[in-house]
């Protein structure tokens, strides 16, 4: 699955006694009703978040993982690929104006 949005928070890496590592981050979706979605990266993937920062637009590829522990059920969104969305602005950036090309003002309509 994939989701696109703006990174809201990147948490520090957590390392457990067993040597297992995980890192969580939150992406805010676009649209009329934005949602804050928490993802995790695990093991050797924790370093993929080092090149990203809060406020940056990204596309996240992830799997949904579910498990049971002591009679309770848990779901995790486990990201396996994160990449920057090129040419996109963050939600707080003002929209840019289209380029003003006065040298090429010819009408390209066919009629």
Would you write up a description of this structure?
The protein is mainly beta. The protein has one domain (2-88): OB fold (Dihydrolipoamide Acetyltransferase, E2P), CATH 2.40.50. The chain contains no helices and 6 strands. Strands 1, 2, 3, 4, 5 and 6 form a 6-stranded antiparallel beta sheet that branches. The protein is globular. It starts with a strand and ends in a 27-residue tail after the last strand. The model is unreliable at 89-99 (pLDDT under 50).
Jot down its keywords.
111 residues, OB fold (Dihydrolipoamide Acetyltransferase, E2P), mainly beta
Describe the structure in brief.
The protein is an all-beta fold. The protein is built from no helices and six strands.
Walk me through the topology.
Elements: E1 2-10, E2 14-15, E3 21-29, E4 36-42, E5 57-69, E6 72-84
């Amino acid at each position: 699955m994939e989701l696109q949005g703006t990174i809201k928070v990147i948490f520090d890496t957590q390392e457990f006694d067993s040597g297992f590592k995980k890192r969580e981050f939150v992406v805010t979706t676009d649209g009329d009703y934005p949602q804050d979605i928490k993802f995790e990266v695990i093991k050797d993937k924790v370093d993929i978040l080092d090149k990203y920062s809060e406020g940056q637009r990204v596309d996240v590829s992830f799997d949904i993982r579910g498990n049971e522990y002591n009679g309770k059920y848990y779901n995790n969104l486990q990201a396996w690929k994160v990449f920057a969305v090129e040419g996109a602005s963050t939600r707080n950036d003002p929209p840019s104006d289209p380029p003003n090309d006065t040298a090429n003002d010819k009408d390209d309509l066919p009629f």
